[in-house]
Amino acid sequence: MTNLKDILGRRLEKFKNSDSDELASYSGIYIDSVNVRPRIRGIEVYIKSKSMVSKEMMGKIKAHLFRILPKCSKLSVYQKPGSIEHTKVIIDRCWDNLLKYLYKRIPQARLWLCNSMYEVEKDGLNIYIENNGLEMTNKKKILAFIDRYYEEIGVDIKVSFKEKMSDEKDDKYDIYEEDRELVEAVLNNNKASDLKASNHAQAGVIIGKMLDRNAVPTCYATNSEKDVIVEGEIFDLSKRELKNNSMIVTFGLTDYSNSIGVKLFLSEEKKEISERLKNNMWVKVKGNIKQNKYSNENELIAKDINYAKKPLRLDTCSEKRVELHLHTRYSAMDAICSPSEVINLAKGWGHKSVAFTDHGVVQ
User: Fold this and answer.
1) Euclidean distance between CA atoms 109 and 98, whole angstroms
2) Residues 335, 343: contact at Cβ < 8 Å?
3) Homologous superfamily of 2-79 in CATH?
4) Using DSSP, how many helices (H) and how many strands (E) does the chain show?
5) pLDDT tens per residue across span 105-134
6) What is the pLDDT of residues 66-103, one digit of tens each?
7) pTM, entire model
8) Pick from 280, 337, 345: which is nearest to 308 by CA?
């Protein structure tokens, strides 16, 4: 192990002193440790530097070291932060890119991470999110995507999610101050609507008015659009009381083309309406889209919400096909549907048979 470390160290020094002025500019770069993985014929190299090494330079170092390792099938090169300050510099520089990386692969992640906080400690990075987001981050395996991101840029760092703790009074005050003008405008608008509305609630209306217009796909909902109507399934529903005793209800809404965050402000007299909203419920929502000044993400400020029927996907073809390539949740990381769900769906579509082609497991 020591010999291999010395060999690679000399190779790095040769590369640094000969043909790479850019590498020479990095202060005190050296190989800290080497880990050999015989089973996969792999080698992991950990380097240290007083300053952050760019992703491009990490790629050049990897290519240069790989030339003297002909029997190595997989070479991984990571930069190991030399101090908490160095780690913080790396995290600060990469944080926005990390969020973009996650949002592109898991759109719902923006609802859990837009208000997150992070803290750098000696043993790694702690990301603090609200408790109702912890379960979803585990379900979506977000940590695996974060580890993959840091692996791609060649950074060796341990990441963990923790519950975001806050004092209840301060939490109410912060939310209210953040949207003071917006809260007052929406609540005043609700009061004006109440004066015009009839005394009896309309069937199908959760709050506001009956919506007759068709909804647009959430992927087409753009910034600063007014009176837009979208519909979809509620997820990650949460409720909080504000300092003026009104309530803010937030949830994600997805129609499976995209997702968008929704905010609903309720006056003290209307807080019981929040009990009508449930996770996995399909609803139609009308409101104005604005950009959250903290997360820079679009969100829908709801004015009217109706119950809606989830659209069913149908097979209208006269000649029914037989699916011969289909995975269920028994194929790890390939699907989430159960065999019974697939069978019921195929039966509803009029299919006479279906083939399961699960792999990688023995049941």
Assistant:
1) 12
2) no
3) Fe-S cluster assembly (FSCA) (3.30.300.130)
4) 10, 12
5) 887 777 777 677 888 876 678 888 875 677
6) 887 877 888 888 777 666 777 777 778 778 888 888 88
7) 0.45
8) 280
The one-letter code for the residue type at 312 is L
**Tokens 């990095």 map to which residue?**
26
Where exactly are the structural domains of the chain? 2-79, 84-163, 168-307, 313-363
Residues, the chain, total?
363
Residues 6+ apart with CB under 8 A from 270: 190, 207
Helix (H, G, I), strand (E, B) or coil at 226: coil
19, two tokens: 């043909």
d(CA 245, CA 172): 9
**Which residue(s) pair with 282 in the sheet?**
233
Is residue 279 within 8 A of residue 289, CB to CB? The reply is no
For 168-307, CATH number?
A: 2.40.50.140
Fold agreement between 2-79 and 168-307? no
